[in-house]
Amino acid sequence: MIKNSMAEKSTQGKTVAYSTVVMSHMIMPQDANPGGITHGGVVMKHIDNAAGVVAVRHTRSNTVTASIDRLDFHNPAFIGNLLTIKASLNMVGKSSMEIGVRVETEDLKTGEIRHTASAYLTFVSLDENFNPQSVPLLLLETDEERRRNHQAQNRRRIRLAEKTNETRCQSSPDTC
Fold first, then answer.
1. What are the CA-CA distances from residue 55 to residues 62, 66, 112, 162 (Å)?
2. Quick one: 29 exposed, middle or buried, by C-beta within 10 A (0-12, 13-18, 19+)?
3. Is the whole model's pTM more than 0.85, yes or no?
4. Would you say residue 73 lies in a domain?
5. I need a surface site. Which of 27, 39, 96, 123 has the fewest CB within 10 A?
6. How does pLDDT run across 82-107, given as a tens digit for each residue?
């Protein structure tokens, strides 16, 4: 019964909630610099892992990171803090998907929660031969999901225009 339900979902599309993930990680000394501040690369790794889980949940296939469109750090995370990563789909294309990630840090002693970082990542779904394959449609249920989808479409247009310009510049440097 569950398999039939899952099959129906995959042919009709899947909701944002279906693949959303929240993951937490305690910041330990090996995650930080001598000043006790978490390395940016450690945060990036957790962002990529959470986004990867969302991509696999949505596609139920192998996926790879194609790009990190934007990564902004807002506040530091310190040893002893709890790092919480919230990731969800913003948009799907033919074989790719944009995943938005928000990272928060909780000071476990005071309960203070700070926005640590945000990122947009693009993942591509791969078939068994490691070629891009189609992904299920994304079913948008709320105004917030529709807003995020619209913003993701705008970022995609900009990203594709930049890629086209970069390709043109590589083949004809005098035009740039």
1. 9, 12, 30, 24
2. exposed
3. yes
4. yes
5. 39
6. 999 999 999 999 999 999 999 999 99
